[in-house]
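Reposting from the mailing list since nobody answered there.

I have sequence plus structure tokens for a pair of proteins and want to know whether others read the tokens the same way I do. The first protein:
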Amino acid sequence: MYQILVCDDDRDIVSAIRIYLNAENYQTICTYNGEECLEVLRSQKVHLVILDIMMPYKSGIETLAALRQWSNVPVILLSAKSEDVDKIIGLNTGADDYITKPFNPVELIARVKSQLRRYMQLGGGEQSGKVIKIGGLSLDDTTKSVMVDNELVSLTPLEYEILSLLMKNAGKVYSPKEIYKAVWNETPMGAENAVAVHIRHIREKIEIDPAEPRYLKVVWGKGYKIHTGAY
């Protein structure tokens, strides 16, 4: 059974989310501030976090930043309509998705299922046992791991899927909308910003100098590709 942590200082919202999740047979842990959220995450196995942005003492963004220092568990941010800037900051900090209050329970559950599927399966229906190597960069579909120059790098589920798509089609240019549709499996709304954020994070993890990438190249006006030239 999947265990989901919900963190919001509004107890009524936490209670409502717990009801929705329990109806789908998810186990729910309820927390009401960032410190309590982090304490639970350090001590228990959690498969997904639903985290409110606006909380006293330690905001959702601060909590997420602390969490990302040691965990890649999927995080869905809860935000008010007026918090667009915080949504962008959240994505930059490592959030996997966000949903705006007031939210539709059906949409919330759909996003939860989508993130859990990525986190637990990563490669989905991809054939396992295949290792792709390009220069010093390698991706292993069996272990769902990525190594750069024989050193393991830690990617979030979305980062892994984006890199997997590009490496399995090395040399092919994908537009942000094509990446978004393939990885998010949704209509590409706001694709450019979402994809750009994750591309930047991937570069920071796999490139010696993200400003002069060896592998993950931008083709101006067209999109992104994995470079297959000599290294």
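The second protein, same order (residues first, tokens after):
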Amino acid sequence: MTTIDFYTHCADRLDVAARLVAKAWSQHGSVRVLTAGEEATAEFDARLWKLPPTGFLPHCRLASPLAAETPILVDHALSHEGPAAVLINLHPSPPPFFSRFERLVEIIGAGEAEAASGRERWRYYKERGYALRSHNLAQRE
């Protein structure tokens, strides 16, 4: 069964997501990031070119000819056919394909609207019997 972790109270969701992508890639070898739309995909793609400042996170979009051999896939398509161990969700809804992954990461911002959306996703997974873990990033700052 998929392990689900919620990272809450994130001041910068994309920064947290980029750090988790790097960690997941080094530990699991493959990562899929689901974004909320084309603009969000482009924004996160640009972020991965800058972080980490002294490294490189090999990534591309699902439609890329290199997708089959690239360990980090960033896209807003609500489907996923290829391999990936970790799914990082930046979309406001539960991904329809999340159960294909070993681990799902939900990143919740500090604003009330994001917190409300995060609570809905928490309920969604909880009602389906998934074990959930929460990591409050405000307590770590």
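Reply #1 (J.P.):
I read it the same way you do. The chain has three helices and seven strands.
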